[in-house]
Design brief:
By secondary structure, the protein is mainly β. It contains no helices and 28 strands. It has a single domain (11-362), classed as YVTN repeat-like/Quinoprotein amine dehydrogenase (Methylamine Dehydrogenase, Chain H). The strands form 7 sheets. The protein has a 4-stranded antiparallel β-sheet with strand order 3-2-1-28, with no helix packed on it. The protein has a 4-stranded antiparallel β-sheet with strand order 4-5-6-7, with no helix packed on it. A hairpin with a 5-residue loop joins β12 and β13 (153-158).
């Protein structure tokens, strides 16, 4: 059985889903240095990919993208970081992204291949034991979904349709309904992928997979609608990459040149620095965020693990962890508090196909 009491000392645990191995690797992070100590690996299932931490921090949710598609609820032992399977719920499709909303009673999911978003109830015990209570068809390739920090609005990206969807969320019923307008268009061929909110809930940043831009939107908290502020490139022109092509795009011929293939995005808890990954060049881009306007300034790019799928910043904002789908190592970087620049702390063994990262801190 899992231990139920917290230790006197704070503990930080890092979870990395490794799709090819079907494992979730577990590490403890040394809070002063960011160094990782491997703890164990949890056998989750082939193609375990997106994960989300429960609001109570006692549960980790993981989606399995091989058939039968399902959502696992894993209890986190706050003393050891180890995982224990507590519930399993069916999913209607392969889910590329999952997230919880602020009340902790609902889990949101987006299906890239299924062109849909879904809502699942989370019980009072923190378990997801039932299937979807709502499934909404979307445009092509729904890639991510996120609730704003007020718990009133939800946004989802459609990579193949070049759109960001806007929903109103009812926390009592746990249901979504389209906002007005229901969608906003990005640039054609941009391929909006992953999204992140500023800590103050004023801005939403969308990373585009096919062009490597970060689209900066202002969030109107009275209506839950977005207004584009700017679009800033994360891939320098001298990188030698041409725009990617969406799988659903018709009539476009691949010129054989290396393509932009952006993946993940993260922002520090103080909102000062934003990071993105690009898989073709295996790099992490750094942006500095203007304190008042939220505007972005591209600052630098640094090499990282091969084909970096996931990054996550620890709750202290001191360290960034990066995984590479084609790498046998996981990298930890110290974040310079003044410049945002990354300095390697260490590299650590990880199972095959490392992609999604979650970090949980117990105090």
């Amino acid at each position: 059985m899992l231990q139920s009491s917290l230790t006197d000392l704070s503990r930080t645990f890092v979870y990395v889903s490794a799709s090819a191995a079907g494992m979730i690797d577990i590490y403890e992070m040394e809070e002063a240095t960011g160094a990782l100590t491997p703890i164990s690996s949890f056998e989750a299932g082939e193609m375990v990919m997106p994960m989300a931490v429960g609001v109570d921090r006692r549960h980790l949710y993981a989606a399995i993208r091989s058939q039968p598609y399902r959502l696992l609820t894993l209890a986190i032992d706050p003393a050891t970081g180890k995982l224990e399977r507590r519930a399993e719920a069916p999913l209607s499709d392969s889910m590329a992204y999952i997230a919880t909303e602020p009340s902790g009673r609902t889990l949101l999911a987006a299906s890239y291949g299924g062109n849909k978003v879904a809502v699942l109830p989370i019980g009072r015990d923190g378990l997801v034991a039932e299937g979807e209570r709502q499934v909404i068809p979307t445009g092509r390739n729904a890639h991510s979904i996120l609730c704003d920090r007020s718990g009133r609005y939800v946004f989802a990206t459609n990579l193949g349709s070049d759109a960001v969807l806007q929903f109103v969320f009812d926390p009592e019923s746990g249901m979504l309904e389209a906002n007005d307008p229901a969608r906003i268009a990005t640039g054609q061929g941009f391929g909006p992928r992953h999204i992140v909110l500023s800590p103050d809930n004023k801005y939403l940043y969308v990373l585009t997979e096919l062009t490597g831009h970060v689209i900066h939107y202002a969030l109107d908290v009275s209506s839950g609608t977005l207004t584009e502020v700017e679009s800033v490139a994360s891939v320098p022109g001298n990188a030698g990459l041409s725009p990617g092509i969406a799988p659903s795009a018709l009539g476009l011929v691949d010129d054989g040149k290396p393509k932009v293939w952006a993946a993940d995005i993260g922002i520090t808890p103080d909102g000062k620095f934003l990071y993105t990954t690009e898989r073709t060049t295996s790099t992490i881009a750094l942006f500095r965020v203007h304190e008042e306007s939220g505007r972005l300034t591209y600052a630098a790019s640094c090499p990282t693990e091969r084909q970096p799928r996931g990054i996550r910043i620890d709750p202290s904002g001191c360290f960034l962890v990066a995984s590479g789908e084609k790498s046998e190592r996981l990298s930890v970087y110290a974040i310079d508090k003044a410049s945002g620049e990354l300095d390697v702390v260490g590299r650590y063994p990880v199972s095959a196909g490392a992609n999604w990262i979650e970090i949980v801190r117990f105090t």
